[in-house]
Design a protein that fits this description.
Rossmann fold, 10 helices, alpha/beta, eight-stranded mixed beta sheet, 2 domains, three-stranded parallel beta sheet, globular, about 325 residues
């Protein structure tokens, strides 16, 4: 699949969960472009898929949408026995918990009142993990964050991309800008990671985009040296202004040169930081880093920063010579 256009065909999409999983697999295998083609899908799911696939083609998209089967004259179910037979013939057993075994799976993060969904990737031999906090209007399926995560994985760093809000919570736009709520979810996720056999020895960093960057900095201020580094991409650190002076984690702020309003806010926020920090300006880039080569530059900068600070043996630690 590497470097090719891949067309994913489904007989119909309801919630979009399975096709998003397929998109993730194809993207990680190096597809240059992904097109989803389906006969039927509800309008809201189609709009969601447009954030993860490069193109979505659907013949019928209408409400009410009760089930895929309502659009078919014949739509028989697959028996449990047939599913078991297929899975048994293709399964590969991987024993979790060994640092020599790579991990690539979707996880549920139990934070008590809510369960968050995330995608956990741990390359063999990883010593550090980066938790991603996406911005408003995005999700863990963001192509931009996934491109950065892939660059980190290629450098031997583990990643956890997660949605800090449930689907229901995202319907209330106020939650998207509730930085304290998002920061608490990040802190809870860091505690959850310490309980996972395959991740409890990994040192932790945060990568935040847009409002997620503010949440990452606020959580880092609270967790102190438990968070070894923070990277902000096109972030709004100003939304965590009251806690910036308390951040001890080395912080890299990455901003597009043509994203002038956000660049000004980042310069002001950096002046409030007391930790080691740098501001990197990607020349010619706008807020979403859609220009040729811009996102690749972001990925390299982030990978270099985390590789420097997340090495459990040699990485720089605030206060340690």
């Amino acid at each position: 699949m590497k470097g090719r256009t891949v067309i994913l065909v489904d007989d119909g999409i309801a919630t979009g969960g399975t096709v998003r999983a397929a998109i993730d697999v194809v993207r990680r295998r190096g597809a240059a472009r992904i097109l989803v083609a389906v006969p039927v899908a509800p309008p809201r799911t189609v709009e969601t898929l447009r954030f993860t696939a490069d193109e979505v083609v659907v013949l019928r998209s209408e409400e009410p949408f009760l089930a895929v089967g309502q659009f078919y004259d014949q739509f028989p179910q697959i028996s449990d026995e047939e599913v078991a037979r297929i899975v048994a013939g293709s399964a590969r057993v991987v024993t979790p918990g060994s640092m020599d075994d790579p991990v690539d799976r979707t996880v549920e993060i139990d934070l008590g009142p809510v369960r968050l969904v995330g995608d956990l990737v741990i390359p063999a031999g990883a010593t550090g993990i980066v938790v991603f906090a996406h911005g408003s209007g995005s999700s863990r399926h963001s192509l931009r964050n996934r491109a950065v995560a892939q660059a980190l994985n290629d450098r031997g760093l583990a990643t956890l991309l997660l949605d800090l809000l449930t689907v229901e919570e995202e319907l209330d736009r106020a939650n998207v800008f509730d930085i304290e709520l998002l920061a608490n979810r990040l802190m809870g996720t860091s505690t959850w990671l310490q309980r996972q056999p395959e991740a409890h020895d990994l040192v932790v960093g945060f990568f935040g985009a847009s409002t997620g960057a503010a949440a990452a900095l606020m959580a880092a201020a609270e967790l102190g040296e438990r968070i070894r580094a923070v990277v902000s991409r096109g972030g709004r650190p100003d939304l965590a202004a009251s806690r910036l002076a308390e951040v001890t984690s080395p912080t890299l702020l990455i901003v597009g040169g043509n994203d002038r309003a956000v660049l000004r806010l980042n310069r002001e926020a950096r002046a409030m930081l007391r930790c080691p920090s740098e501001l990197e300006i990607v020349a010619g880039a706008t807020h979403l880093f859609e220009e040729p080569g811009a996102l690749e530059r972001v990925a390299r900068l982030a990978a270099d920063w985390f590789a420097r600070y997340l090495d459990s043996e040699t990485g720089d630690v605030p206060g340690r010579s």
